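sorry for the late reply, my laptop died twice this morning and i had to redo everyting from scratch. anyway the thing you sent over, i finally got around to it. pasting the sequence first so we're on the same page, its 406 residues, then the predicted structure underneath. double check i copied it right bc i was rushing
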Amino acid sequence: MKRLLLATTAVACSLSAHAAPPVEGFVSARGPDLALDGREYRAVGVNVPHLSQIHMGTWFHLGHLYGTPEKARAAAVAAVEDASRSGFAFIRFFAGPGYPIESARLYEKDPDAYWWGMDELFALCRRNGLRLVPCLNVTGQNARCGEPRRAILDPSSKTWKENRRYVEAFATRYKDDPTVLMWELENELMLAADVDMKGTPLIPRGVYPEGATVRETGGREDSLTWEMTQRIYREQAAFLKSLDPNHLVTSGDAGVRPEATSRRETFPDFRYRDDTWREHLANELAAQPEPLDVFSLHHYGPADAGPSGAGLSPLERARLTARAVRAARAPLFIGEMGQDAPAFKSDPEAAWARAYLDMAEEEAIPLVALWAWHFPWQPDLTLDGRSHPKLVERAREFNRRHAGIE
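ok and here's the structure:
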């Protein structure tokens, strides 16, 4: 693995698309806005969820979609350079060790090579003028530790200790690096709140290395309640901020479920009731407590139904929710923005996504990340610099005006 990383360094350097502006300065919060070098900062970026895993050759689906680690690594470089060439400001990616089998391939086998590979990825993005939002997947260590999901709340558990070790290594390594736009804790954790996991299939045996402890069926102890999820956000955000005073922290949440109130009130014997719009907004604001710095939501349209009693389109809901978050004096990060029906593949005009960026600019939403970029695992939802020229140009215009990217 080390030889692969070394052998491709020169290739990565030689493929630089253009002279990108340097990544300098730390982004800070100023009420509901973000600031960089004393000026308001707003930006559009992209999601390359598997970026570090294809860059280091550990992704579970690598062989099926890329063939070889060398081709996967070249694809990672291509995704970064295309994002830079297309005028995007940052990349969000899943930065945890991954499935147990992915973690075993490099992070557990050779930690020095793992972190050296991450350094290379950061350097690649830095050369291309791109910041990063690493999603640290703070609740993802339990599978490889053979423990239930609630173990993240138990300081005596292996899960808790392994997560602490990983987050501390990551945050202290890059705490002085402005390539990090901000830290993200987890992906869409509040969607799992008050969902009873008893008797539910867990991740399959195939994503574990040989000899690992495999828990194939969930128990009640794999369920996280609303209060537990809030506690995770508080504890993990506080820990990150104690390690790194330079970078903001966001949750990675998609938002709450349309039936969040009834789930919370009836768990574990769930009785469905759609939230009213007022309940929904109140839940959204309460779901991501301080000391989180930046509010996170994920928006898809135009088919996403949302709370059935609201009578609002996805774009209208997004606008009103953005206003509520701004009134709460928190910066807003739309960590995933994509199209569901029609999906990007069947809509080269990307009409809904462009309308969303219009709304985001009107409502002064600080950060939006398109889902997804160079991601062959989801061919209907993926984009690149040539597939949707109108959307790319709309994002470029946004970044020219608000992120200082020409």
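The mean pLDDT is 95.
thats about all i looked at so far, will dig more tmrw
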